[in-house]
C-alpha cells in the first residue's frame, strides 16, 4: 500500500488507515483481530483508536492482538483523550491527559503512543496547559507525535500559534469528519491545515455507510447495519441525512463507480484521497469482508472529469460574507480551487 507523510513533521503512514470504533461494540474480538490481520497483510500501518471507543475495549483488543504478534513497532498506533476524563478533571487538562495516557498505554500494552490526539476542544482548559502537558510527554518519550480532532479553524490556528510561540510540539494531523456528504471543513479548517503543514485524516469516509448506497430514500433501515440498529445514531442519523442532496450525491457516486466497474465505496474513498491535504483516510468496518472490499479502493484513480462531477454535485457553497466578499482580493482562492 502506498505511504504518505503525515504532515510536515509526522511519520510515514499508509494512505488507508484502520479505524477501530466498531471494535468491542458491533465487532467482536475475533472479527476485530481478523480486520487487524488483514489490514497489516495488505500493507496498512496506521491504526486509529480512542480511549472512549467501547469504553476502552477497542484499545484493549488492539493491545492483546499486538502482544500476540510480538509487538507493534512496525505500525503507527494512534489513540485519543478528552471525552473520558477521570472524575474531577476537565477533558484536556494536565491531570486528565496524564491519567488517560497511562490508562491507554496500559490497555494498548505499549510504552509510547505514536500519535496522540486530543479528541476535541476543551473550553475550560487553557491551551497552554494542554500543550505544555503534551510537550512534557513527548520529551519523556511517552508520545511520539501530537494531533487534534474535531476543531474549528480558529481553534486550530490558536493551537498552532501558541505551540510555535511557546516551543511546544505542533500537531502533525487533524482528524475531522470529511466526506462527499460533509465538506464543511473545507471552509476554515482545511486552509489552516494547508498553511501550517498539518495533515488531514478524514473520519467517516463513507458518511457512516450512506456512500455505499445501502440506505434508500423511502424505507427506514432495519437489520444489522449502523442505522438499522439505531436510525438516530450520530452525524449519519437517517432523518438528518435522508435528503435530496444526499441521494443526488449517492447517485453521482454510483454513476462514476459504474464507469469504473467498482463499488460506490471505492469512489467515495478515492475522491477523498485525491483532495488537497489528505494524508490518510480512516476506514471503518463492521466485518473483515467490508474491510477487504474497502481496502481494494487503494488503486482506483479518478480522472479529472470524475473529480469534477463529484466535487460539483457535493458542493455546499460558501456563506456570501465574508467568503464571497474576500476571495477575489485576499489571495484566498483556495475555495475556488477546492470547488467548495
Ligand atoms: N475523531 C472522531 O471524532 C471520530 C468520529 C468517528 C469516527 N472516527 C474514526 O474514523 C473511523 C471511521 O469512521 P466511520 O466508521 O464512521 O466510517 P465510515 O466508513 O463512514 O462508516 C463505516 C461503516 O459503514 C459500513 N460499511 C463500511 N464498509 C462497508 C461496505 N463495504 N459495505 C457496506 N457497508 C459498509 C459499516 O457499518 P454497518 O455495516 O454497521 O452499516 C461501517 O461500520 C472510525 O473507526 C474511527 O477510527 C473518528
Automatic annotation (TrEMBL):
Residue intervals of the NADP-dependent oxidoreductase domain: 16-313
Protein name: Aldo/keto reductase
Origin organism lineage: Bacteria, Pseudomonadati, Pseudomonadota, Alphaproteobacteria, Hyphomicrobiales
One Pfam family cited in the UniProt record for this chain: Aldo_ket_red
Keyword tags: Oxidoreductase
One Gene Ontology MF term: oxidoreductase activity
Amino acid at each position: 500500500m502506498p505511504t504518505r507523510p503525515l504532515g510536515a513533521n509526522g511519520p510515514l503512514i499508509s494512505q488507508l488507515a484502520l479505524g477501530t470504533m466498531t471494535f468491542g461494540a458491533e465487532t467482536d474480538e475475533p472479527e476485530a483481530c481478523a480486520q487487524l490481520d488483514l489490514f497489516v497483510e495488505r500493507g496498512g500501518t496506521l491504526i486509529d483508536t480512542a480511549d472512549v471507543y467501547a469504553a476502552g475495549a477497542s484499545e484493549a483488543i488492539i493491545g492483546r492482538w499486538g502482544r500476540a504478534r510480538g509487538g507493534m513497532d512496525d505500525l503507527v498506533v494512534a489513540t485519543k483523550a478528552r471525552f473520558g476524563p477521570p472524575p474531577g478533571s476537565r477533558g484536556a487538562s494536565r491531570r486528565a491527559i496524564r491519567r488517560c495516557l497511562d490508562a491507554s498505554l496500559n490497555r494498548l500494552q505499549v510504552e509510547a503512543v505514536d500519535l496522540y490526539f486530543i479528541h476535541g476542544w476543551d473550553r475550560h482548559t487553557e491551551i497552554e496547559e494542554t500543550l505544555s502537558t503534551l510537550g512534557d510527554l513527548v520529551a519523556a518519550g511517552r508520545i511520539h507525535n501530537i494531533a487534534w480532532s474535531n476543531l474549528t479553524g480558529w481553534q486550530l490556528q490558536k493551537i498552532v500559534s501558541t505551540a510555535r510561540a511557546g516551543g511546544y510540539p505542533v500537531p502533525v494531523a487533524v482528524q475531522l469528519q470529511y466526506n462527499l456528504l460533509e465538506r464543511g471543513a473545507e471552509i476554515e479548517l482545511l486552509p489552516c491545515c494547508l498553511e501550517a503543514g498539518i495533515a488531514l485524516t478524514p473520519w467517516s469516509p463513507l458518511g457512516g455507510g450512506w456512500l455505499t448506497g445501502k440506505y434508500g430514500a423511502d424505507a427506514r433501515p432495519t437489520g444489522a447495519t449502523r442505522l438499522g440498529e439505531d436510525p438516530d445514531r450520530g452525524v449519519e442519523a437517517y432523518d438528518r441525512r435522508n435528503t435530496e442532496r444526499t441521494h443526488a450525491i449517492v447517485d453521482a457516486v454510483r454513476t462514476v463507480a459504474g464507469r469504473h466497474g467498482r463499488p460506490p465505496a471505492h469512489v467515495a474513498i478515492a475522491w477523498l484521497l485525491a483532495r488537497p491535504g489528505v494524508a490518510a483516510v480512516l476506514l471503518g468496518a463492521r466485518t473483515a469482508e467490508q474491510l477487504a472490499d474497502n481496502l481494494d479502493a487503494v488503486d482506483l484513480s479518478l480522472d479529472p472529469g470524475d473529480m469534477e462531477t463529484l466535487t460539483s454535485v457535493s458542493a455546499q457553497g460558501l456563506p456570501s460574507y465574508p467568503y464571497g466578499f474576500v476571495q477575489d482580493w485576499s489571495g484566498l482562492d483556495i475555495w475556488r480551487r477546492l470547488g467548495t
